[in-house]
Amino acid sequence: MVLMYYYDHIGSCCRKLIMKIGCPTKILLYPYEGWAAAAMHVYWTLKTRWWNRSRCKIVEVCAGKKRSTKGKIYDDGNGMMYITGHFKDSKLPDFELLLTSHVTKQDFLAGYILTGTLERGDKEQKNMQLTHFAMIKQK
Length: 139
Description:
Elements: H1 2-8, H2 14-21, E1 25-31, E2 42-48, E3 55-62, E4 65-75, E5 80-86, E6 94-100, H3 105-109, E7 112-122, E8 127-137
Antiparallel strand pairs: 1-2, 1-8, 2-3, 3-4, 4-5, 5-6, 6-7, 7-8
């Protein structure tokens, strides 16, 4: 029954799907093969604020170390969601996470309801590069 709910909402608003999953939402990050830097197993948890729909808290877990930041959510309502922010004390401080609910049939059958990409870099120097693929699994 729950699987049919997600299947019926492919291409719908990402915010509704994230609210259906519950808080906090675990974002699995898989490294992009073309990225030159070494990548460890990393995932993010996304906590949305109930009093503010456009702000969120992001906790990055990398090799057992945690660091958190605040992010801004832009949801267009047509299946695309952008989350932007920056981490302090990092070589690549800024990030842009793009999530979409327009998933392929293979991704849906693998259990993912939202897929996307993560770009990291420095916005001031206009040096953003694709680093990870992002996936959110259904519960």
